Amino acid sequence: MLSVKHLLDTTSLTADDITQILDTARSFAEINARKGIKKVPALRGRTIVNLFLEPSTRTRSSFELAEKRLSADTLNMGGSTSSVVKGESLADTIQTIDAMNVDMFVVRARLAGTPKKVTENTDAIVINAGDGKHQHPTQAMLDLYTIREHFGHLDGLNVAIVGDLAHSRVCGSLAPALTTMGANVTLVGPPTFLVDDPTYYRCPQTSDFDSILADMDVVYMLRVQLERMEGAAIPSKREYNHLYGLDVRRMSMMKDDAIICHPGPMNRGMEINTEVADCARSRILEQVTAGVATRMAEMYLLLGGENDGVSN
Amino acid sequence: METLEPKATIMDSSAMRRAFTRIAHEILERNEGAAGLGIVGIVSRGVPLAEILSKQIGEIEGVCPPVGKLDISFYRDDIARSIAPVLHATNIPFTIDDRDIVLVDDVLYTGRTVRSALDALMDLGRPKSVQLAVMVDRGHRELPIRADYVGKNVPSSRSEAVRVHLKEVDGENSVTIWDRNTRKRG
Hints:
heterodimer; A: alpha/beta; Rossmann fold; five-stranded parallel sheet; four-stranded parallel sheet; B: Rossmann fold; three-stranded antiparallel sheet; 8 strands
């Protein structure tokens, strides 16, 4: 049992919650790797609504696959095809779907706080699948899973989160989750992308990428979110790549067993170069694989209901 | 929960050893040898039992049948009532297609665990046959399921709990019976 009813952010998760999710995800990874039937009846008869008010390919397909492999019934609602575009308020939309007795909402939205707003209009369980620049907790869980599978543990690891910190909900979820698990996080980015208040993340912040590389076990490159930028935060793609992109030169400064992660989709040639993205240290595709298993674990644990202590 | 003494010990270590030997012989007799056999223990206490049975069969036949473990958490029909993090992933290191599978658990009670295990097994392949071996059959079936090999039949009350202790897990081999409200959670 998790200590939370909804999965809205990683700041309210305890180390025990995160460990439960990662441990359970291992069992689901076994199911996903099967040659036979990649499906279990664990959530048979449960209804899950995927409310994606912002475009998404990988998160959405990852959730849909996770739901199908748990045997849940799903309903997909998108921004452009729903009544939200007809001017219906979010509260009315949620109450309408809620009246049809669903068990869970998976919410992706452009506005931070939307998933929280959804919880106020339904009794169903809500998972935040990314809200604005705020949080993306299910991404953080798959990242932690990927890192833990490589090193066998999370505590004591040095992790650099590099790039567009200010616009990143991935960083917003990953940094606190790593800190909760005992890892040492360093935030790295150009001055225009630094976070306003690094004390909120309880970790140091720097603009000197080269100086920290030699100490890192994990270098986590963030996507430069061109669509979320207001004004000119960076002069050019080429200059960004030169100063903050992960290229072969920077990779050679890393420890031998250090790994590289990226949440995708990648801007190749900007924050990460092709030779680095496709090399043996890159865990980018492992992250995608972990996404299905960790999302299955989150939905299974959240929809599991009350623990009455009976298990015989 | 306070741990009290069990009401009674219904099998001691030598009784269990004799039961293992007998079941191993019964499995071999029915399947005419160990070829094509696979032993699958249901997590968690079926797993060490499956290993013991495989070893016993090996001592008689000279070949130990392969052992796998089956986690049925995701196949339970009571997930809404009971859930815990799942730590023991299914791991069956052999193909179950066209094999005679002996499913192993410690206690046969309502039959719901075995029902779930059959579903889980069928998702992994198509065994030639599935047989069920349990250390204790305590009655009170809620589904039409019976065991092929039984260590001991123990008539019990629903208010009681039956617990199989194994040397590999608990330090000793025994089967004990408890009043449910005083039973140690396991």
